[in-house]
Amino acid sequence: MSDASGTFADTTERLTEAYRRRCTGLDEMLGADGKPRSAWKAFGERLDLVGLDEMRRRQREIKRRLREDGATYHVYGNPQGPEHPWALDALPLLIDAPQWHRVSKGLEQRAHLLGLLLADLYGPQRALHDGLIPPAAVLDHPGFLRMLVGAPLPRPQPLPLYAADLARGPDERLWLLSDRVQAPSGLGYALENRRVMAETQPRLYRDLQVAGLGGFLGAFEQNLRALAGDAYESLGLLTPGPYNETFFDQALLAAHLGIPLLQGDDLNASGGSLRMPRGAPLHVLLRRLDADWCDPLELRPDSLLGVPGMLELVRRGRLTLINPPGCGVLENFALIPFLPALSRTWLGEELLLPQVATWWCGQPKALEHVLARLDSLVVRPIARQLGPAVFPGSLDRSARERLAERIRAQPGRWIGQAPAVHSTAPVLQDDGLAPRAVVLRSFAAAGDEGYAVLPGALVRTSVHAGDPDTRGRQGGPSKDLWVPADDTAAQAPWLRSPHRARATPIPPHAADNLFWTGRYMARAEALGRSLRAWSWRVDGTDSAVLRTRLLDTLAVLAGMPAVPRLHPHAALVEFITGSAGTGGLSVHLNHLETCLGSIRERLPADAPALNRQLRPSTGHDGSQALLGLERQLTALWALEGIFSEGIMPHDGGAFFACGLRLERALSLVTLLNHTLIGTLPDPQSEDALAEAALAAVGGTETHRRSHGWPPEAAGVLDLLIREPDFARSLSYQLEALERAARRLPGLPIATRIDWADRVRAIAAPLVAQRLSQPDGAGRLLQTIDANLRALADELTTYYFPPAPQLRIHRTL
Amino acid sequence: MTDWQIIHRTRYRYPNPAERALHLAWLKPREHRDQTLRNFTLECQPEADELLWHTDVYGNAYCFIEHLAPHEDFSVISSATVACSEYDWTKTAGRGPWEQAKSAPADVEGCEFTLSEHAPALLDRLRDYALPSFPAGRPLGEAVLELGKRIHQDFAYVSGSTSVTTPLQTVLDNRRGVCQDFAGIAIGCLRTLGLPARYVSGYVEPIIGGQSAIGASHAWAAVRDTDGRWLDFDPTNATVARGGHITLAWGRRYSDCPPLKGIVYGGGKAAPEVAVEVTRIDTV
Questions:
Q1: Exposed, middle or buried by CB within 10 Å (0-12, 13-18, 19+), for A700?
Q2: Chain B contact for A129, CB < 8 A?
Q3: B217 touches chain A (CB under 8 A)
């Protein structure tokens, strides 16, 4: 809190006052009388006290934190790149305790009822036979997976995780908009929002006595553990991969729960269990992959994201998926009109959460009703995968006719709904607070007895006040929901899971990405250093021979087929900015970023913040590119240090170290091969090249002190290849590689020793031979290069088997 | 009753070793009122590492087969002895007006077999094709058999002209296909009229010059009568399905009960070699 002034500033209008004038309808902060609601009273006063400037400062701090955490939302087809920064508004949404209590009860009831329905639909189907739900509303829904009828469901609750979208209706109550059970997203974002809010506004958070999220997460985690038979190491989170729009959400949840993030081809379903290569069986997978994509043997045959044979394991009770595949049938707008009667019959209770009035067109009367009022309704297919909602009122006459035609052709696939009313809440903008429509997503987690409801929610806002569209791709910033705590003990924003020491194998994808993180880091560094050391030599030297040699070397380090046919200075810039399809520093760094993005949940805490420093300076003119080099190199070194210290070898650090050392060795060999080895033009150039090689490796000062100055080719070769105490020498890289290979996790000891011994054998000639002759050194380097590449291939095939070639034979 | 001996072999010879393979097989003849299974064996070469039997949502037995070791030559061989009655439903069933056999909204089984996966435009074409056989009040059996005959006349049986993924639209456009396509047309037609119809996978007795010969996998259709009984008919042969039609399994469509499907890791391109022998065992 700012304590700059105890009174309202007279010159600026109070924030809440200005907001009142902008509000036109139902609002979260202001009641119908224009005064702050009870939950907002204290907050509103503070807001006025703090003022716009301070709130904007906090907003900037929030933005910075989110950026440092690498919080993103992927947007497909976005020309600015697929990653969209996650946005969080500095103002929380407040709801009073009695109201949230009622909502919680409603969510619990709904989760329970839908769980009962799920078990019934995949079992006796009494709801259908008793006439409580028309059969077509279920049987024609694409989420109903017949091959799972009779398959075991999680216990005690068939739906371990339930999520719902809520919005406030005109009667001031919170209404249910839709049920999310297939693979609900948002829990990770909600955790991130809470952490950032509590850390950037600690006094506000404390003073408002906000309920923490730890209790909910504890219940969720306990249920996961119970489902896994207390074997926590047999849990995992199945992700569609780093290109999925909510990958950050998934990575954060996996990191929080301390379970591995797995892609389909990290896993095999064989011999009656699901495993990572060389791993123990996994019993429970938190699934963020829609069921359709889970098993190409029985579901979508074109899916490469799932695991063939997974459903068979589910049927046999060897694997529990959360939520169970097939629950997608509950994300079904056609069910809405029938749930009140189902609740009365099965639970003997009225539904506690009001639902938006809905008509299923599969019933003739409802169809008639919908077609007669098309203009004033929202119309949508019963399942989201069948298409988006349509607002017939916004269509012209002929489009509306065509829509009516489509509905008449397959009435059972459509519903009509009264348009939902959304309340607004204040969102911070440059000129003050603006009202924006809000939708809340909250969660319920199963426990031994019923459900625990998250005392909070991921709140999404619209871009305009009147526009109800709050979806991630089109919407405005997110918000954190604050509910008053029952007791102060539960206020910690969210608790980290208790630590469990255990050896979980590293999933192949993660291992691969760690290995390549090391390789791209070293590759980018070698090129970056050389560019920095040589730019003035290339630009300024009179010797065409020297210039050609250096440019050729840079082209190889950049991964380019040839030196661009440009003026030397322009060629240098090209090596940095790169171009599509060829190479260059920015291409190496892009690859590095992709690797880092894919192992988000394993990154050491400081890594994401540095990530952004790797990006090129904006404006690609030459001087900018060369100036940005310094910053990019600094970020690379810092990142390398953070990785080396932040990840233990057995936890994947050994993969990183292997990649880094291997690539450093290879880059150094490349550099030497193109500068000092082979026929040298003349003694003068030879010495100039020796000096250039030294500078590129960062050994100028070392050589000066230990070998004298000016350098000679033989001495430079000796230092760069053989000197065991020089941290940039080939010999040093190989020794480090040997150490890392000895620590590779998940290998039989014999294999580990075998690999480490092979590295030692590769390095052996360095100790034995004195390298006075460039020719001899050339042959030696060639052998080492070939041996290292063979080793890298072997490591890759052993650890990171290529994705299995799925071949589907459908026989008649 | 007539006893039938069936031997069904499917073989893949892979150019490269298949590292691992998972298969699902609907190869066990199911029992029903007119069919009894006397004995059955299913054998894999190489021997399966896992072979588990399940019952699907329609009551068909199917098995999950897993091979964990590399192999280049893969076969599934099933052999069965089945007793079938020569019952002909045309004499006793399907005599009421076809409209009475339509599925009611609350009828779960009726709904399951009336819902259609086809796009509205295709449904219209199927309805137009079906309607001439279904004037108001016509007995169901008569209408269905005539529909089967018309399909038999209008569509050319061209072996290999379609695959399991050929859309029904294409079959309707080209007017040619194989048994499963004709079954698909018949089922599609019946469903657009609101009649529950199902796909039946099985074998048919091959008669060449009055003698048993090499038989084949076959597919036909069935419609549900007013009393809930299913009436099988074979549009490929323009006949009632009885006696020589041996049922393996049924479902809404081909993909609910394919004789064999699988996923193979590695292996390379290989075409299935399928041989089916259906032999009448004369009962005394």
A1: middle
A2: yes
A3: yes
Nearest-angstrom CA–CA distance, A383 and A253: 27
pTM of the model: 0.89
Residue A5 confidence class, pLDDT cut points 50, 70, 90: very low
**By C-alpha distance, which of B61, B103, B76 is closest to B223?**
B103
Contact A310, A262 (CB under 8 A): no
More confident residue, A233 or A347: A347
Residue B121 Cα, gap to closest chain A Cα (Å): 9
H or E element at residue A495: none
Q: CB of A802 within 8 Å of any CB in chain B?
A: no
Query: pLDDT value at position B269?
Result: 83
Q: Does domain B89-242 have CATH number 3.10.620.30?
A: yes
**Nearest residue on chain B to A146, alpha-carbon basis:** B57
Q: Which residue on chain A is closest to B259 by alpha carbon?
A: A812
Q: Is B263 within 8 Å of A808 when comparing Cβ atoms?
A: yes
Q: What's the fold here for domain B2-84+258-281?
A: Immunoglobulin-like (2.60.40)
| A149 contacts chain B (CB < 8 A) | yes
* Euclidean distance between CA atoms A442 and A107, whole angstroms: 9
Residues of A in contact with B267 (CB under 8 A): 807
Three-state secondary structure of A465-479: CCCCCCCCCCCCCEE
Q: What is the pLDDT of residues B129-152, one digit of tens each?
A: 999 999 999 999 999 999 999 999
Q: What is the distance between the alpha carbons of residues A11 and A4, in angstroms, rounded to a whole number? A: 15
Mean pLDDT for the stretch of residues B50-61: 96
Q: What is the ipTM of this complex?
A: 0.94
**Three-state SS at B183:** helix
In the stretch 124-163 of chain B, residues with CB closer than 8 A to chain A read none
- Asked whether the beta carbons of A426 and A434 are under 8 A apart, the reply is yes
Return the domain boundaries, chain B: 2-84+258-281, 89-242
A13 CB-near residues (< 8 Å, 6+ apart): none
Q: Which residues of B touch A812 (CB under 8 A)?
A: 164, 180, 217, 258-259, 272, 274
